[in-house]
Every structure is written in C-alpha cells, then in structure tokens.
C-alpha cells in the first residue's frame, strides 16, 4: 500500500478519474459493441451499466492509493492462454474447444452441442454465483468442465482443488436435475483442472480420480463421474506428444504442434479484439469491487 500525504485535494483527483474511466469505457460500449445494447436497456439496466464503470474509483479514498499485487491489472496485450479471461474467450470456439478436450482426455469427444464459458450457478447460501470456466456438453450427452488454474501468489493448498472439484460436480448434477431430468439419467461428467503447478506435489503428469470400493480392488462405483488434475509443469517425456506440446504451450507460450498453433493464433487475434478488451476491463473492475467489499466486511 502506498500513501501520499502531500496530496491535499484528493476528491478532485478522484472526481476526474471517475469521469475519465466512465468516458473511456462508455465509448467502447457504444462504438465497439453495439449502441443498441445500451439504448435498449431499461433505466435500471442503464444505471447498473454506469455504476459498474466507476467501481474502481472506490479504491481511491482517505488519501490512500492501494497498489497491492492482487489488484494490479494485467495488460490486455500480455494475456496468455493460461490467463482465465483469455482461456474462456479462446475456448468459445467449439471446434478448437473440442480439440483441446480430445488432447487432454486422449480420446474422441462428440460434437459439442452446448458450450458456455463462465457458466453461473447460484446455489450458495448467500446468493453469490459460482462460475465454471468452460462448460461443455457433447452429442453423446457427456458433460465436461474445464478449469484453468494459476497459483496467483497463493499456496497450492489454498486453492482447495479437491473440495472445489466436488462442489463443481454437485453443481453440474443439480443443474441437470433442475431442468426436470431424473437422477437416473444423470450424464457422464468430467471435471478437469488444467494446473500450471503440481496440484498434489507428487510429480505425476496428471491425477485421475474415480469412485472405487476400498474393500474390493477393481470394483468401481461406476457413477459416471471423473475428476482429472493436469500438471502442466511436468517435465517427463513419458506422455503423448500432443499432450506434451499442450503442457509446454500453457507453461511457456511456445506453440510447437498443430493444436497449440491454432490456440496461439486465437490468442493473438484475441489481443486485437477491442470488444474483448472492453469486457476484460469491466470484468476486472467488478471483481476488484467484490474483493474490496470482502475486505471491508472483514475489518
């Protein structure tokens, strides 16, 4: 945290910052996305839109400027496939997403009939949404959830990946049943965490979990669920070449296979997409506001 006591007229700076950010993002909304997307909103929607634009100004208060690592916005041009926002955007391409799934699973995947990035589930007690990075359903009724995981200055344990995998699996099942389906017809589902670190510190290339009987070896529960944690920092050579290239691309950004070159081309094009840039900025502002609210409640 940096403090500047010599700045006396801080309200003036804050006021101008609000005006600048509002003007900048409003122009992007009007000119880059679609003017009708704003004009067609009701008064409440328009109000929410403008409020979201000035959220970040809340961090400039009491003569303090917060410059913590967690709140530093990564330049849009620096985003890589491993970054959550770019990962979700690139995976919106159905064919590319299917190829990535086939590379990870090392088996064919049916045609994707449903693909949603940042799919929301609102099952928490406080009403806050839980979001899946990339949710897919294929023509064989199999469901796949792919999550990109970075440490982000946290410990591996603080990510709570085992409990999160359980939570995500439950959310997928409940969402399916809430559509009027019977539990007897629950689809095969796979929750995948693409980790830029070793999630279990055992040096394996991946960790695959299925329900099984402890007393009888070889007796599986066969409930149709699988949880897989991929270790992209694995350095061994005993994995398929396409998966090796995918791991290397996630880690280094160097594309050396047909698949990773397709991904890299999508990333490069994405960095030039001004609509994505606007969405990235607004999403970051909203996330930081949520972080600030949590910090204030903890004080």
Give a quick set of tags describing it.
299 residues; alpha+beta; 2 domains; six-stranded mixed beta sheet; three-stranded antiparallel beta sheet; 9 helices; 9 strands; 43% helix; globular
Describe this structure in words.
By secondary structure, the protein is an alpha+beta fold. It folds into two domains: 2-76 and 274-298, no CATH class; 81-252, no CATH class. Helices cover 43% and strands 17% of the residues. Strands 4-5-6-7-9-8 form a six-stranded mixed sheet, with helices on both faces. Strands 1-3-2 form a three-stranded antiparallel sheet, covered by helices on one side. The longest helix has 25 residues, at 274-298.
Q: How would you write the strand order of the largest sheet? A: 4-5-6-7-9-8
Helices and strands: which structural class? alpha+beta
Distance, first to last CA: 16 Å
- Please bin the fraction of helical residues: 40-55%
Largest sheet: 6 strands, mixed
Q: In total, how many beta strands?
A: 9
Report the radius of gyration as a whole number of Å. Answer: 22 Å
Low-confidence stretches: 1-16, 29-38, 51-71
Number of domains: 2
With helices defined by DSSP (H or I, 4 residues minimum), what is the helix count?
9
Instruction: Name the overall outline.
Output: globular
Nearest-integer average pLDDT: 79
* Amount of beta strand: 15-25%
Give the SSE string.
EHHHEEHHEEEHEEEHHH
């Amino acid at each position: 945290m940096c403090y500047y006591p010599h700045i006396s007229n801080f309200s003036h700076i804050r006021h101008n910052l609000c005006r600048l950010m509002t003007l900048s993002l409003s122009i992007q909304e009007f000119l880059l996305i679609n003017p009708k997307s704003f004009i067609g909103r009701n008064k409440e929607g328009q109000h929410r839109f403008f409020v979201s634009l000035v959220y970040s100004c809340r961090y400039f208060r009491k003569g303090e400027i917060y410059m913590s690592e967690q709140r530093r916005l990564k330049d849009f041009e620096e985003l890589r496939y491993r970054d959550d926002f770019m990962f979700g955007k690139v995976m919106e391409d159905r064919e590319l997403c299917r190829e990535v799934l086939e590379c990870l699973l090392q088996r064919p995947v049916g045609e994707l009939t449903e693909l949603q990035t940042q799919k929301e589930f609102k099952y928490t007690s406080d009403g806050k949404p839980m979001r899946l990075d990339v949710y897919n359903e294929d023509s064989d009724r199999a469901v796949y959830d792919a999550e990109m995981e970075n440490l982000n200055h946290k410990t591996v344990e603080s990510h709570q990946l085992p409990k999160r995998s359980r939570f995500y699996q439950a959310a997928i099942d409940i969402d399916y049943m809430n559509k009027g389906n019977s539990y007897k017809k629950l689809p095969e589902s796979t929750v995948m965490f693409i980790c830029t670190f070793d999630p279990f510190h055992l040096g394996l290339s991946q960790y695959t979990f299925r329900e099984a009987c402890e007393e009888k070896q070889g007796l599986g529960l066969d409930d149709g669920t699988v949880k897989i944690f991929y270790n992209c920092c694995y350095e061994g050579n005993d994995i398929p070449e396409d998966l090796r290239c995918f791991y290397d691309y996630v880690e280094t950004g160097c594309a050396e296979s047909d698949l990773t070159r397709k991904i890299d081309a999508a990333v490069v094009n994405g960095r030039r997409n001004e609509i994505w840039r606007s969405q990235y900025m607004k999403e970051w502002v909203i996330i930081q506001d949520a972080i600030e609210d949590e910090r204030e409640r903890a004080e």
